[in-house]
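Morning F.,

Quick status update on the modeling queue. The single chain you submitted on Monday has been processed. Sequence for confirmation:
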Amino acid sequence: MTKAPKKMPIIIALGSAQTLGFGSTLYLPAILSAPMAEEFGIPTGWAFGAFSLALVVAALLGPMAGARIDRFGGRNILTVSSLVFALGLGLLGLSNGMIAMCMAWLIIGAGMAMGLYEAAFATLAGIFGRGARGPITGITLIAGFASTICWPISAGLEIEYGWRAACFFWAAMHLLVGLPLNRLIIPAGNDKHMAPAKAPADNPDNVRVKADTAVTPGYFTVPMILLAFIFAASWFIATAMAAHLPRLLQISGMDTADAIIAASLVGPAQVAGRLLEFGVLQRMHPLISARIAGFAHPLGASLLLVFAGPVGMIFTSLHGAGNGILTIAKGTLPLALFGPVGYGLRQGFLMAPSRFAQAAAPFLFGLLIDGYGVRAVLLTVGLGLLSCLAMMFLKTDTARSAAS
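Structure tokens below.
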């Protein structure tokens, strides 16, 4: 048995790799879909549809990747994800039409199943067990700046050198930065740093109990279904807002400049919410902090419906802060409720519906805005409130109740 690894190098490595992963995948279509579609002579919606294929692949392969991490640890899976990302982005840069573009996104989707938050959270759960809540919060704090860092880079490369150069740049970054971070800093496996059956009382978070005593219920129980719905609803809301927020704010009565300023507050608000989770809310059960965060979007959106443009900044701040905390909850809630045993496979099942919701959100919410204007947020308000209701049915002893 070796000494448990230090948290900070792992947090910095995974956080940096996640920033690269999100910036070169989920945040890439917003910048490159239009120029790609223009060159290929296809509607921009088709380019976004190709990206949706990646989300579907990620949903289908997520449980398999999670189970692999449970068994062998996350280092190898995360390392392979860097190679797959590089391959997919390279092929995307070489694509000469719709079919080649779709094939490239399918490969990128496989990388997303192995290399984004779910895989990173499962890796941390394997290393630190129930002490992974702090590291999970840490990597989301770093990766929360993915859009802030990567959008300007992608846009600048596209303007100066074209969209293909942006794809090649991100492919190279996965090989030169992501690959070394995942391979050299992440510990080799889940079983190499486990502590004896009883963890020292003065250092509970830095070790993992080898014979974890947490009761681990099945993967298709009522609590699991509730969690899957909660996560899918939050991803739908977050993706719908990411795709349409400036337009929604303009329809509510804000001018273009003010709408962009208000929309830009989402990123800082997400980081502020995560800092709140890292500090004050860290003392609460993750379920309590998730319940509080779940009300943020419905409250802000309701204010927007009633008062329109003048409360746009309040709306975006509330939405961002709530979403920031709920992103952490996607990692900490399953860990707190069910324990670290089988965490990776559980995450794969929990997040599969979220990927489908994420794929559908831009199109469906866009149709609602076209038909109903600002009243389209009634859908996201309803989903948010249903999510909060579902959380009320979850208890801190859910795992034991489900297993008994």
